[in-house]
Specification:
Blueprint lengths: L40 E5 L2 E5 L6 E4 L1 H9 L6 E5 L13 H6 L2 E3 L5 H6 L4 E6 L2 E2 L7 H6 L4 E3 L18 H16 L2 H21 L8 E5 L7 E3 L4 H9 L2 E2 L8 E3 L2 H7 L3 E6 L5 H10 L7 H4 L3 E5 H4 L5 H18 L1
Helix pairs in contact: 5-6, 6-12, 7-12
Family: Belongs to the bacterial solute-binding protein 8 family.
InterPro entries: ABC_Transporter_SBP, ABC_transptr_periplasmic_BD
Keywords: Signal
Length: 340
């Protein structure tokens, strides 16, 4: 999502996730060292066919959402480690605590070629600005030269509009695409299908209760930034989290995933609700104080009515926590609609 990664995990609220999303092993993944398939597997990743000659046994992941996609599929035994900052909260309070204890924490920063090689990785699962980056030379092409295959997080795929714009499909479709692909690659297709079916049902239940038409609150996602806000366009996970919860993303017209806009555009669109992405060195409370005291926003409906809702970073990037985030935001937006 960002040039600098962050990983503030959802704590008590995340426990609303269903058992199938929290590491319950319905379908056992093939043990490391045992092939799940006698033949190579070809997947479509970021619009390109990619062939994997064998089932990976030492996967290295970058950032929390990507790591938890592996955990949700019960694939921690196929992992050699993960990289993420240390602002991810108390791991004893998260659904995947046992998997986090089992898998090695390689780095508190983004992945590098050095720690990937040290881990003897046979697959790197990361994304553009979620580990992969041109400026540091850590790319799928550079890893391929080292004989290490990659899989790119679909939310982060470059969309061709520029060298930095990301997103090629609706965000939840990206989540389902990655679960489906990983299920095929690791031989856990049934588990992937069950997760997807469960997530679709959770979201459909929220959609059925959501405000309709003009009652749908306008929502602005505030990630960070004071001179200019960093927010979510229509290809980032908050787009569909907001939509399925019963709101309208005021930055839907931004053909990107995560991007910077001007405050004047926020004022012009007058959001009813601001959702804060909680992570990093600036706390959600500090972000809230800034928004409530920032003079240009004083006449914005969300600020005048103090309608500010907080979700964690892991809720708002592609991850198994997205359906739970839809449910929690949906409950809040229904109260807003009832009071309007």
């Amino acid at each position: 999502m960002r040039t600098l990664p962050a990983a503030a995990l959802c704590l008590a609220a995340a426990l609303t996730a269903t058992a199938t999303g929290c590491g319950a092993h319905v379908e056992k993944a093939p043990a490391a060292g045992a092939s799940a398939s006698a033949t190579a597997v070809t997947l479509t990743n970021c619009g390109t066919p990619v062939t994997y000659d064998k089932v990976p046994e030492r996967v290295v992941t970058n950032d929390v959402g990507i790591t938890e996609l592996m955990f949700a599929l019960g694939l921690e035994d196929r992992m050699a480690g993960y990289a993420m900052p240390d602002d991810k909260g108390d791991l004893d309070a998260v659904p995947y605590k046992d998997a986090y204890r089992k898998v090695k924490w390689l780095s508190k920063d983004q992945l590098t070629k050095e720690n990937v090689l040290d881990a003897r990785a046979d697959l790197v699962f990361a994304g553009w600005n979620y580990g992969f980056r041109e400026d540091g030379g850590f790319t799928p092409d550079s890893l391929k030269k080292l004989g290490i295959p990659s899989y790119i997080l679909t939310e982060s795929c470059h969309n061709g509009r520029s060298k930095t714009s990301r997103g090629i499909m609706p965000p939840l479709d990206a989540l389902y695409a990655d679960l489906t692909n990983l299920g095929r690659l690791f031989g856990v297709e049934q588990r992937a299908a069950r997760l997807i079916a469960d997530y679709r049902k959770q979201i459909a239940d929220v959609r059925a209760q959501a405000p309709q038409g003009a009652e749908r609150p306008r929502v602005f996602l505030y990630d960070s930034g004071q001179d200019q806000p960093f927010t979510a366009g229509r290809y980032a996970a908050p787009e569909q989290i907001i939509t399925e919860a019963g709101g309208v993303n005021v930055m839907h017209d931004a053909a990107d995933s995560w991007t910077t806009v001007g405050w004047e555009s926020v004022v012009d669109r007058d959001p009813d609700v601001i959702v804060i992405c909680d992570y990093g060195d600036v706390s959600a409370e500090q972000k809230k104080k800034f928004l409530l005291s920032y003079a240009p926003l004083r006449d914005v409906s969300a600020v005048k009515n103090r309608r500010i809702f907080v979700l964690d970073y892991v809720d708002l990037v592609e991850s198994p926590r997205n359906p739970s985030a839809v449910a929690r935001l949906g409950a809040y937006l229904r109260t807003v609609a009832q009071k309007s």
